[in-house]
Design goal:
About 75% of the residues lie in helices and about 5% in strands. By secondary structure, the protein is mainly α.
């Protein structure tokens, strides 16, 4: 009731909001004890990433740190799985080449097209490994890119860099390069580093435009 009065909304609206927060582990509601706000680092799960990023867009350094942590996890998982399941990936060589070709075409069609093609390529790649947890990470990444256009803008600002990284990854895998893991890690790491730099710059520019 106090929250409803403070924000001039119906108590039922507050109840729905609290229920959603509780479902995501962000608050704990106990009758007679009120609400306890939980630390998302201790009680949150990967589904919080898009919300966590959105909530910190006005804090460029913190938002960039969160995105950086997420990209690192994605990169480590992807690298490990691609190297471990190389033989399975080779059986999907044709679908991978087709998906890669679509990325090359989409690189001339704008951010949205490149985002969709890149996610489709990653889905074929991770799908070949059979790891459903890795696919859940990919699905979260796709949500972030779709719901927060500033992340997609930062990630795909230089299409040539994205397609070059993809080509290096495919070449290392298909050629059975003994250093494939290091090559993939470096290629993905360079893209992520550029993404983070552009992301923080975009957020700071937006903050400056509002002041």
């Amino acid at each position: 009731r106090e929250l409803a009065e403070a924000y001039s909304v119906n108590p039922a609206t507050i109840q729905r909001a609290v229920s959603r927060l509780e479902t995501r582990g962000l608050v704990t509601a106990r009758q007679g004890s009120g609400l306890r706000v939980n630390d998302p680092a201790e009680s949150g799960d990967i589904s919080l990433i898009p919300f966590w990023l959105e909530a910190t867009l006005d804090q460029p350094a913190q938002a960039t740190s969160i995105l950086g942590d997420f990209l690192e996890v994605r990169r480590v998982i992807a690298t490990r799985l691609m190297v471990r399941h190389r033989d399975a990936l080779l059986t999907h060589a044709e679908p991978l080449r087709h998906a890669a070709q679509r990325v090359l075409v989409a690189s001339h069609e704008g951010v949205d097209a490149l985002r969709d093609a890149d996610m489709a390529f990653a889905r074929v790649m991770l799908g070949a490994t059979g790891n459903v947890v890795a696919l859940s990470v990919l699905n979260t990444m796709a949500r972030v890119l779709e719901e927060l256009p500033v992340v997609a803008e930062a990630m795909y600002a230089e299409p040539a860099a994205s397609t070059d990284a993809m080509a290096r990854v495919l070449t290392a895998l298909l050629a059975a390069d003994p250093d494939a893991g290091a090559i993939i890690e470096q290629a993905l790491g360079e893209v992520d580093a550029h993404t983070l730099s552009r992301f923080e710059a975009l957020l700071r520019a937006r903050a400056g435009a509002r002041t």
